[in-house]
């Protein structure tokens, strides 16, 4: 009967293979996840069977390799009884099965499962009793490799936390291992030691300690890889680790200075950290930018922790609100809408913001400019007000009036006063908005250039700058 039967091969002991699995391997059109498994070697005549790992020798992207493999299985299953033999239990920790189940449902191809003991069962017997006491994350090594291959746009794809025990299934071949190690290196310290669980031809397991940096070169018939949880104090390369550290600083018995801080007392620090980020960007100093972004991120975590203590909101609320907002305001990315260019994006962004305010009961007519932070620098605030007013058709004067006043002031035809100088600065901000430039940044860059010229020359002249 056409369709697919997923056969669990178990952790490796051929004697533990069920009779149903033996019958399926003997009678169906067999496809293998790997040839390097004791049951496959003894029961499934691996030399003549197609195997997923055979497709991994090329430079084809891994996601494409998986899709082509699933296409092969589904095409065969439309006319024949297909058996897909997978280490362990096929429904636990296998990335190819996950994709296959989704695609099979879409294609209306029936799928049956013959279960077996999981890799977790074998690991429980092979590892120390305390190793899995905190629960365990089970991931296919292929998932980590996919996340690495999708870099720099694969952030967050590997849904794992180094603060919890991790068991990686289906290790190998070399290409997958090398890419998976790249993902692990983003989250675990270089000093991390792993346990590689190998199975012998008879299905017995033995563990070998391996350094993270050497994992890509590991050899043998690997069944799984175990990584112990990492303390956030040892290596907080994960958002949750940083959250725990900040909470500890604020907790009773923590840091006296951190415990005294409030939203208000941290206001100046937030501004200073933001400007230090800008300074690192202006210097094109990646190392400094990395450090300053961390300092700015600390402000977010501190404010969220203070708010949680007051019962206002949590860090998860902040992240959840932001994530929902980004998805909601980018329907051209996460939905069916279309945006031809950046101007279309901005127009849609404004429309969505207005709809959001209307849902909250905010009178749009009463707030034509929206919310503009009062703490913005004056020139930046001026450009924001002018840009929004022009876009909404609400500018209360002829823009040429500002330009005329600016020229009159420059020509000495009007006295310099707070009013005339303010109009001149408004004219500059309007000119920047019309040109798509950032007036604040333009002035900052020219001021820095002037300062450098002055510091570099005892007697600086305009020629030194221009």
What does this structure look like?
This protein has 466 residues and is of the alpha/beta class. The protein has 5 domains: 3-117, Cobalt-precorrin-4 Transmethylase, domain 1 (3-Layer(aba) Sandwich), CATH 3.40.1010; 122-227, Methyltransferase, Cobalt-precorrin-4 Transmethylase, Domain 2; 239-328, Helix Hairpins (Orthogonal Bundle); 333-367; 374-466. Helix content is 50%, strand content 10%. It has 19 helices and 9 strands. It has helices spanning 19-27, 38-43, 62-77, 95-107, 119-126, 141-149, 174-187, 239-250, 256-260, 267-282, 286-309, 315-328, 331-334, 342-359, 378-392, 399-410, 418-435, 439-456, 462-465; strands at 3-8, 29-32, 81-86, 111-114, 137-140, 166-169, 193-199, 205-211, 222-227. The strands form 2 sheets. It has a 5-stranded mixed β-sheet. Strands 2-3-1-4 form a 4-stranded parallel β-sheet, sandwiched between helices. Helix 3 crosses helix 4 (95-107), helix 15 (378-392) packs across helix 17 (418-435) and helix 16 packs across helix 17 (418-435). It is elongated, with a radius of gyration of 31 Å. The termini are far apart. The model has no long low-confidence stretch (mean pLDDT 87). Residues 261-334 form the NTP pyrophosphohydrolase MazG-like domain. It comes from Sphaerobacter thermophilus (strain ATCC 49802 / DSM 20745 / KCCM 41009 / NCIMB 13125 / S 6022).
């Amino acid at each position: 009967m056409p369709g697919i039967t997923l056969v669990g091969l178990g952790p490796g002991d051929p004697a533990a293979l069920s009779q149903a699995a033996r019958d399926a391997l003997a009678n169906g059109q067999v496809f293998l996840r790997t040839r390097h498994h004791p049951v496959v070697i003894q029961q499934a005549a691996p030399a003549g069977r197609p195997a997923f790992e055979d497709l991994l020798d090329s430079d084809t992207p891994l996601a494409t390799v998986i899709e082509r493999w699933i296409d092969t299985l589904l095409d065969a299953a439309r006319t024949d009884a297909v058996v897909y033999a997978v280490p362990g239990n096929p429904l636990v920790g296998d990335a190819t099965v996950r994709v296959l189940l989704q695609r099979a449902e879409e294609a209306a191809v029936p799928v049956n499962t013959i279960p077996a003991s999981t890799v977790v069962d074998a690991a429980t017997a092979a590892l120390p009793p305390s190793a899995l006491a905190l629960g365990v994350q089970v991931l296919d090594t292929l998932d980590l490799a996919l996340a690495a291959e999708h870099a720099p746009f694969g952030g967050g794809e590997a849904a794992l936390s180094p603060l919890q025990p991790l068991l990686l299934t289906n290790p190998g071949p070399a290409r997958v291992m090398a890419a998976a190690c790249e993902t692990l290196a983003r989250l675990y310290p270089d000093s991390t030691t792993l346990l590689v669980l190998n199975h012998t031809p008879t299905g017995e397991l033995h563990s070998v300690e391996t350094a993270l940096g050497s994992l890509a070169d590991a050899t043998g018939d690997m069944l799984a890889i175990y990584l112990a949880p990492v303390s956030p104090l040892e290596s907080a390369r994960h958002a949750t680790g940083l959250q725990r550290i900040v909470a500890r600083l604020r907790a009773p018995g923590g840091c006296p200075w951190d415990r005294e801080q409030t939203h208000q007392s941290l206001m100046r620090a937030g501004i200073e950290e933001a400007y230090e980020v800008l300074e690192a960007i202006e210097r094109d100093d990646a190392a400094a930018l990395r450090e300053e972004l961390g300092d700015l991120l600390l402000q977010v975590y501190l404010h969220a922790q203070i708010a949680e203590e007051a019962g206002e909101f949590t860090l998860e609320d902040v992240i959840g609100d932001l994530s929902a907002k980004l998805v909601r305001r980018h329907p051209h990315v996460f939905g069916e809408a279309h945006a031809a260019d950046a101007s279309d994006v901005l127009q849609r962004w404004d429309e969505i913001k207005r709809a959001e305010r209307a849902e909250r009961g905010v009178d749009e007519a009463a707030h034509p400019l929206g919310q503009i932070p009062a703490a913005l620098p004056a020139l930046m605030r001026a450009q924001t007000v002018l840009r929004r007013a022009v876009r909404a058709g609400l500018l209360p004067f002829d823009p040429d009036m500002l330009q005329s006043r600016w020229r009159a002031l420059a020509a000495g035809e009007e006295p310099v006063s707070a009013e005339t100088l303010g109009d001149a600065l408004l004219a500059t901000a309007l000119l920047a908005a019309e040109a798509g430039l950032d007036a604040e940044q333009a002035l900052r860059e020219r001021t820095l250039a002037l300062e450098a010229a002055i510091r570099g020359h005892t007697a600086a002249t305009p020629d030194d700058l221009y």
